[in-house]
Amino acid sequence: AIKTGDVYNKLLTDFGSALDRANTTVAIPDGEFSANEGVSLSVDLANITQAEALQLSFTYDAAKLDFENLETNIDGLNLDNLSVNAAKGRIILSWVGAFRPGSQLLHLQLLFRAKYKGVLSQAITFDSKDQLLYGEGKVQDLQYQFIRNATFELFQNQPNPTTGETIVSFYLPKRETVELEFLDNNGKVIDVIQGTFEHGLNKIVVDVAKWQVQGLV
Question: How far is residue 170's CA from residue 189's CA, in Å, rounded to a whole number?
Answer without folding.
Answer: 20
